[in-house]
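Researcher: I've been going back and forth with a colleague about how GDSL esterase/lipase might be arranged in three dimensions. Neither of us has a model we trust, so I'd like an independent prediction. The organism is Canna indica, in case that matters for your notes. Sequence below.
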Amino acid sequence: MAALLATLVISLLFSTSIPTITAISEPVLYVFGDSLSDVGNNNYLPLSLAKSDYPWYGIDYYDGIPTGRFTNGRTIGDIIAAKLGIPSPPPYMSLSMNDDAILQGVNYASGGAGILNETGLYFIQKLSFDDQISCFEMTKLAIARKIGRVAAEKLSNGAIFLVGLGSNDYINNFLQPVLADGHIYTLPEFENLLIAALDGQLTRLYHLGARKVVFHGLAPMGCIPSQRARAIDGQCLGFVNDYVLRFNSRVKNLLSALNSKLPGAQMTFADCYSLVLDLINNPELYGFKISHTSCCNVDTSVGGLCLPNSDLCDNRKEYVFWDAYHPTDAANEVIANQLFTDPDVGQVHPAPGGVAPSPSPL
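Model: Here is an independent structure prediction for GDSL esterase/lipase. You can compare it with whatever you and your colleague have in mind.
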């Protein structure tokens, strides 16, 4: 539920089982994911068609310019990092492995990425989850050269790994009639394929030192503007939401199985499905007015991203969605805040050591 991610992050962060790392006093966060988490990695992939390095993306970020984030401002990962009292992890592709920044967390997320390597092939270039894990492997080798193998292992064991993938495997793979997977596999077969791949990937991350893994479950994708556009009545696509619920359930079971067989593994599922569905169905309860369409007047027939010639809504804080796929900064803030302030969480400190979160750019 909504409280789960907050409970997990805080419990992992302050767990007495986390090893003490010399010269590392702040939380270390590694982020893996797709366009919901990308903070600019795809900007460094010259052939990638999954980019947001143009107006109006970033209009409400700190400098008001595009950063490669697929929203008008911050991602949920940015806000979570601020609440942990740390800077948002920089994109992997922007770093040299000589940079000390790799000791403090890295973001590997890539727009168009999926659990399956074939997902998002028509974006030409992207970092799949397998690619992102390989990038982390390179990062860990570089960390070992800086602080030694033992310290690098302790850093990995104590870090938080935030993983959010799977939406593109449906929206930009299985549900696309021009791609093979939707024709080759039945739904149960496709689910089995996803879970088998994810099993191997999370096991690989574990053997690279990951212990504290938060898998961010899928939101009700049938209700995002790109999917509503496919419905005759403009309502949520119920069958897509059913796919999501099936996937989320399978991932929960997978994480439980991995925790049972991998010593020291603490892999937890952060289920925000109900929270996001309520935000969509009852936007006024959260200070929004519109949740069925996007602030940016997008053309869903040509991808659904916010193009420089697109018209914007008058008040971006009133909209849940920025473009056909991604939430606004304001919606991301509501989701992240609820993850950390849900009454079920109990006493939650906003950041370790009393460090205040960074202010909103809005």
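Researcher: What would you highlight for our discussion?
Model: I'd start with this: The longest helix spans residues 238-261. After that, consider the following. The domain at 2-16+27-343 is CATH 3.40.50.1110 (Rossmann fold).
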